[in-house]
Amino acid sequence: MKHSFNVQGMTCEHCEKAVVRAVRQLDRSAEVVADRTRNLVEVTSSQPAEALRQAIAEEGYTVVA
């Protein structure tokens, strides 16, 4: 299932990598694209959206509905 999240606080490449890493810790096979210029994170994963949202938030980023 594909999910799109508006993620605030990503300001650099390191931030993008941190978000990708957080999602992949939850689902190693997830396809993740983080784009800080658009505040967008797209995830293809079998995990529920809420679990993915929480993984990103625990990394220190704000996920906007």
Explain what you see.
- This protein is of the alpha+beta class.
- It has one domain: Alpha-Beta Plaits.
- The chain is 37% helix and 31% strand.
- It is built from 2 helices and 4 strands, in the order βαββαβ.
- The protein has helices at residues 13-26, 49-58, and strands spanning 2-8, 31-35, 40-44, 62-64.
- The protein has a 4-stranded antiparallel beta sheet, covered by helices on one side.
- Helix 1 crosses helix 2.
- The chain is globular, with a radius of gyration of 10 Å.
- The model has no long low-confidence stretch (mean pLDDT 97).
Task: List strands and helices in order, with pairings.
Layout: E1 2-8, H1 13-26, E2 31-35, E3 40-44, H2 49-58, E4 62-64
Antiparallel strand pairs: 1-3, 1-4, 2-3
Total strands: the figure is 4
Percent helix, as a range, is 25-40%
CATH architecture: 2-Layer Sandwich
Structurally, how many domains make up the residues? 1
What radius of gyration results from the CA coordinates? 10 Å
Using the coordinates above, name the CATH class: Alpha Beta
Estimate the strand proportion. 25-35%
Q: Which topology does CATH recognise?
A: Alpha-Beta Plaits
Backbone shape? globular
Q: Report mean pLDDT, rounded to a whole number.
A: 97
With helices defined by DSSP (H or I, 4 residues minimum), what is the helix count?
Answer: 2
N-to-C series of helices and strands: EHEEHE
Can you summarize the main beta sheet? 4 strands, antiparallel
Structural class: alpha+beta
**Could you give the distance between the termini?**
17 Å
As laid out across the biggest beta sheet, the strand order is 2-3-1-4
Would you identify the regions where 5 or more consecutive residues have pLDDT less than 50? none
